[in-house]
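Extended Data, panel c. Modelled sequence:
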Amino acid sequence: MKQLFLTLSMVLLGVTAMAQTIDDRQFGIDGFAACAGTAGTNHYLAGGTTGGEGGTVVKADNFSQLQAYLQSTKPYIVLVDHDISTGIACYVDDLSTGKLCDKQDGTEGVKTTYGERIMVASNKTLIGIADAQGNAPLFSRITFVMQCTSNVIIRNCRFTMNGVPVLKSGENKIVAWRNGAQKEVGDPDCIGIQADAKSAKSDWGGHVWIDHCEFFNGNAANKDRYDGLVDCKNNVQWITISYNLFHDHDKSCLWGKGDSDVYDGCRTISCHHNHFKDISGSRLPLQRGGHVHYMNNYQENCEDGWDLRSQSVGYADACYFKDGKAPILPDGGGELNINAAADYGIVYDNCKRVITGHEGITFVNAPKKYDRQFDAAQYVTSTWLPTQTWSDYYVNSHDRATDVPAICQQYAGAGKMVVWTGDVPAPSAEHFAEAVSTQRSMGDTAVFDEQGNKITHVDTPVRNMMANSGQTSAVPVFDMNGRQTISSSKGMVYIKNGKKVLKK
């Protein structure tokens, strides 16, 4: 049956978040992220994932602004139209290893920038706006952590940890420059979704949509140089990962950090129309626990692919695997269901380790000899379908397996389509000040400036000072550093810490 899951009206689930139709294909939110979740539980969200919908639309021009908006307790739709890193230079022995040099004056090593961490708060949308050449903004050496976070959308962005610095004596942790000192700030994941701030037994998070993004690292001396591209751990539910490009990496996606990271209801994830290319290691994903709908994904020239481990449940649906070592590893303790409908099973194209004995499998360009064959006796079969978890579950496009390579090459990744069609506001110091003053309390969450110094506050408009300066307008003026400036006949008045300073 061509449409296994009926494409329902967006109104049915109250989803209003950025739906586009291109080439007669619908690219709005779908899968588990579009589901409301079970009423009466922490994960219930009426209408499904909406991100920062209803919040202020802002433009982030630098790392400080990006960090402030995404860590604020207020909802925001954050737009970015150019590449962002911390911009704080440092020197490492080599980009492939990233060990920080003893001297940081440029006399030894190669140049990169310090890394950082953004503790993404709930009710946020981050959208990259591509340039005229179709290049979406690249976030370099910045880890985006969703710790006990709900309702986040990230679209049309690129992420890499390439060249991130680490301590010589450390364990490949990201090193940031904070308040005049080097500080380790966490694992070098591009995106980490987790829920263990206090206790993994009671914490929760979820309702996340990651769509049309690109993730890569490469240039690594060993497989432990970088961590995951998109990792999901603990009790996080109702997630969709769609139309993304994952490439040039080793350990891509870890969904469940260990055999104990499994329990009832954890990790409901839709993974569809993603292109995994040149993954020289594993984890596409490595799944422990949870339920995953693995649909219309294209693995190309990868090694160990989707690895179903302890108590995991998965549905393999119309996927294409080309030139792979082991696209699906079903014998690790999980349960696997494979779509048996004609044209909607899985295709092995010159793959070395394959599943056999199932009517939903097609072989193309079979090698002369397989490294290994998994028959039904070697793994636990399942009958699970996503509609058993959510009765109104839907996907916008359910494509034939043989069409998947062309579709993923055309649409998966950043810069492949226009995601934002609204106005792009100018950077606003007023909004930046508000975001700084409403930071989420989560560990050592803070906002840091272009020198790595903590920003404690940004001064807000003061009407009486404007009047005293001779300026009659009630509209304050800010410079690009968020300082309020006031014109006067004697020069510029700068407001700093509530005091008027006249610059002659």
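Confidence is low (pLDDT under 50) at residues 1-17, 462-504. This feature is highlighted in the accompanying rendering.
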